[in-house]
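Known limitations

Structure tokens in this collection are predictions and should be treated as such. Users comparing against experimental data should check residue numbering before alignment. To illustrate the layout, the record for IP19117p is reproduced below. The input appears on top and the generated tokens appear beneath it.
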Amino acid sequence: MEALRRFLRTETRCRLNGIHTLILCVLFLGFSVAGEMPDLFTPEPDLTIDECHDEFTIACANASLVFSDSYDLCELNANETIINLEVDVELERLQIELGSSAVCGNMQICDTLVDDLEYFQCINKNGIHNLDILTEINYNATSAYTRLHEDYDAVHRALLLCGLDAQKKYMEDIRQAHRELTKCRSEIDELNE
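Generated tokens:
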């Protein structure tokens, strides 16, 4: 369970770092001259082109914020589901622990007997009873493991699909912002001709 949480946290950080890198690249693409000192004698660029790029930057930032919020919601749902699974498993775990304590207690009762005949008779009687308890423990543990494994797979699958939906929405928003930027720039170019 802890490994799944660590995996989810690491995967989230990697995705967010990738998104932040993508945003920075997009922001730098908006500038024609990056990293150089501005030329004070060159007239200011056309403000409408700047407005196009400002709208593009805002749209990209909004897309990133929506993605981040959506993915956080995906993680929150996954974590809440895992917590609910852990609560459900507690009762089964308690039953298994009680059964194993009963097996040990049954054998310890026989250890107190001094007479060999009584000792072996106690082991025989309690051994048969312990076999029933151990069979029940084995059934409960195998059943719980199988269900829990399937439940964790379902949580992971739901998180993955939710994350993919958030990524798809993000890419659609970025593409739309780029289309609007291209349209805005082409309209300005037409006006300048």
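For this record: Residues 31-35, 37-45 have pLDDT under 50 and may be disordered. The radius of gyration is 32 Å. Please report discrepancies through the issue tracker.
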